[in-house]
UniProtKB/TrEMBL annotation:
This is RNA helicase. It holds the Pfam family Helicase_C. It comes from Pseudofrankia asymbiotica. CDD domains: DEADc, SF2_C_DEAD. Residues 218-374 form the Helicase C-terminal domain. A motif (Q motif) lies at residues 2-30.
Length: 508
C-alpha cells in the first residue's frame, strides 16, 4: 500500500501527518494526490468521511511552499466551504501543515465581527478558507482581491448547490485568474455541479474513490418503529449510553426543544443550529468535542463536514428530508475505519417514508418495533451502563439567537438564516399579551375559590402596600403563572398588572 511520500507528498509534510498519527492515505487521497500535486485541475468524488479535506489541503500547501510572500489583501489560495463550522475545521486541519511550510491562513465567514478577518487579510495571508457570503461582502468593500489566487478549491460542492450558493461561487471563481489550478470535491455529482465543472475546470482529472451510496462496512443501520409517547424515553436511553451521540432533527425549534428535554432528563446535551450566534455554536461544539456534553442535537447544519472523533451513535430523531441528507447525517459516525451505529426513529405514519428513503440510499436497515425504553435491543445498539446526571448539573445548551437586524454584515447567506422580526412590533405584541394575561390572572383565582373578597378589598384600599400585596397574591395564585405563564412574560417583557391593582391605583 502506498505511503504519502510514495504519492509525491514532500517529506516535511509527511512528517507532520505522521505526528498526527496519519500514515496511510485513504482511497480518495491515493487517487487524487498525484494529479493535484502536479497542478492539474481535479474533480474528486467521495462519501462523507473519506478524507477529502487532506486530499486538497496537502497539494495546496505543497504547491505554495517556497513561493513569494502573499501581498496585503491578496491571498494566494482560496478554499470555499458551505458552512462556518466546516470552514473552521478545514482551517484547523490546515494549520499544522501550513506552519511546517511557513505559510499563513485565516477564515472568513459570517456570524462574527469582520474586523479581525479584514486585519488578517490586510497583513497578507497565503490561504483564505471562506464561506461565500462574507467573502463577497469583503470583496465589495474593497478589503480583499482574488487577482493573485493561484489555487482555488471548492469543498462540499453539492452542499453549496443545496444551499443556493452556486451563483455566489461562480462570481467568486470568476474573479480568480483563468490559468490557476482549480479543484472541486463533492460527495455527489448532480447536474448543477456538472455545469460548474464544465465551466471552470480545464480537462480535470476525475477520481471517484467511494460513491455516496457505497456501503460502509463498519456502519450498521436500524429503524426503530416507535409511537410518539415512547419517542423521548427511547432517545434518553440511547443517548445516556457511554460514548458520543449525535441526534438530528429537521427544524431549529425541534433541536432546541429536544436538547432542553434531554438536559432535563439528565443527559448532558448541547445544540447546534442556525439560530445560535457563532460564539454559541463554537462553544457548544467544543463542549461536545471535550466530553462536557455527551449528546449533540443538531439540524442538517452539522450533517456536512463536521468532524468529531469517536461518535459511536447517530440518531435520526426526525427522518431526514431525502436520502442524500440521510447519508450525510449518518456519515458523522464510522469515520476513518471506525465502527458506528445509525438509528432512525419512525412512527407508524413515517414508516413508509423511511422505507422509501432507505431504498433510495441503497441501504437495508433492520426494522424493529420498540414499545418502550425497556426493549433489549436498545442495550445492544448502545451498549454500556446508562449514566444520567442531575438535571441541575447537566450542560445547559447555548441558545442565544442573533436577531436578524443585528447580524453582522456579510453573514454567510444560506445557512439556516434567522427569521426576520421587527423589534418594535415584537415589543408591542409582548406588551399586549402581558396585559391580557394580567386581566386573566386577576379573574381566575377568584372564580376558582368562589370568593370575591380579595378583589373587593384591593379595590377599596387606598394603600399602595395593600395594592402591591394583592398584586403579588393574585399573581402567585394564577393558574397561568403556575403553568409557566404566557410566552411574553419572560425576561425583558413588560410587567404584568392585575385588574385589582389597577382599580386600587385608580382609587388613590
Amino acid at each position: 500500500m502506498s505511503s504519502f511520500t510514495d504519492l509525491g507528498v514532500p517529506a516535511r509534510l509527511a512528517d507532520v501527518l505522521a505526528g498526527l498519527a496519519i500514515e496511510t492515505p485513504t482511497p480518495i487521497q491515493r487517487a487524487t494526490l498525484p494529479d493535484a500535486l502536479a497542478g492539474r485541475d481535479v474533480l474528486g468524488r467521495g462519501r462523507t468521511g473519506s478524507g477529502k479535506t487532506l486530499a486538497f489541503l496537502i497539494p495546496v500547501v505543497a504547491r505554495l511552499s517556497g513561493g513569494p510572500r502573499a501581498r496585503a489583501g491578496a491571498p494566494r489560495a482560496l478554499v470555499l466551504a458551505p458552512t462556518r463550522e466546516l470552514a473552521a475545521q478545514i482551517d484547523t486541519a490546515l494549520r499544522p501543515l501550513a506552519a511546517a511550510a511557513g505559510l499563513t491562513s485565516c477564515t472568513v465567514f459570517g456570524g462574527v465581527g469582520q474586523n479581525p478577518q479584514v486585519a488578517a487579510i490586510r497583513r497578507g495571508v497565503d490561504i483564505v478558507v471562506a464561506c461565500p457570503g462574507r467573502l463577497e461582502d469583503l470583496l465589495d468593500q474593497g478589503h480583499c482581491s482574488l487577482a493573485h489566487v493561484k489555487i482555488t478549491v471548492l469543498d462540499e460542492a453539492d452542499h453549496m448547490a443545496d444551499l443556493g450558493f452556486l451563483p455566489a461561487v461562480r462570481r467568486l471563481i470568476g474573479q480568480t485568474p483563468a490559468g490557476g489550478q482549480r479543484m472541486l470535491f463533492s460527495a455527489t455529482l448532480d447536474k448543477a455541479i456538472d455545469t460548474l465543472v464544465r465551466q471552470y475546470l480545464s480537462k480535470p482529472a476525475v477520481h471517484e474513490a467511494d460513491s455516496a451510496q457505497s456501503p460502509v462496512g463498519t456502519m450498521t443501520h436500524h429503524v426503530l418503529h416507535v409511537e410518539r409517547d415512547s419517542r423521548l424515553p427511547v432517545l434518553v436511553d440511547l443517548s445516556s449510553a457511554p460514548g458520543r451521540t449525535v441526534v438530528f432533527t429537521r427544524t431549529k425549534h425541534g433541536a432546541k426543544a429536544l436538547a432542553r428535554q434531554l438536559n432535563r432528563a439528565g443527559v448532558p446535551t448541547v445544540e447546534l443550529h442556525g439560530n445560535l450566534s457563532q460564539n454559541a455554536r463554537t462553544r457548544n461544539l467544543d463542549d461536545f468535542q471535550t466530553d462536557r456534553a455527551t449528546a449533540l442535537v443538531a439540524t442538517d447544519i452539522a450533517a456536512r463536514g463536521i468532524h468529531v472523533d469517536n461518535v459511536a451513535l447517530v440518531i435520526h430523531a426526525d427522518p431526514p428530508a431525502d436520502h442524500k441528507a440521510y447519508l450525510h447525517r449518518s456519515g458523522r459516525t464510522a469515520r476513518a475505519g471506525n465502527s458506528g451505529t445509525v438509528v432512525t426513529l419512525a412512527t407508524t405514519e413515517q414508516l413508509r417514508e423511511v422505507t422509501q428513503l432507505a431504498r433510495a440510499a441503497g441501504i437495508k436497515p433492520t426494522t424493529t418495533r420498540v414499545a418502550s425504553a425497556d426493549h433489549p435491543l436498545l442495550a445492544a445498539l448502545a451498549p454500556g451502563t446508562r449514566s444520567l446526571t442531575s438535571p441541575v448539573t447537566a450542560v445547559q445548551a447555548q441558545t442565544r439567537a442573533i436577531p436578524a437586524q443585528r447580524q453582522p454584515a456579510g453573514e454567510d447567506r444560506g445557512t439556516e438564516s434567522t427569521p426576520r422580526a421587527g423589534r418594535r412590533r415584537g415589543r408591542r405584541q409582548a406588551g399586549n399579551q402581558s396585559r391580557g394575561a394580567g386581566r386573566a390572572t386577576a379573574a381566575r383565582p377568584a372564580a376558582a375559590t368562589g370568593s370575591r373578597s380579595a378583589t373587593a378589598t384591593a379595590t377599596a384600599s387606598r394603600s399602595a402596600t395593600a395594592s402591591r400585596s394583592t398584586t403579588a397574591t393574585t399573581r402567585a395564585g394564577s393558574p397561568d403563572r403556575q403553568a409557566g405563564g404566557s410566552p411574553a412574560q419572560g425576561s425583558g417583557s413588560r410587567p404584568t398588572h392585575s385588574a385589582a391593582a389597577f382599580s386600587a391605583r385608580r382609587g388613590r
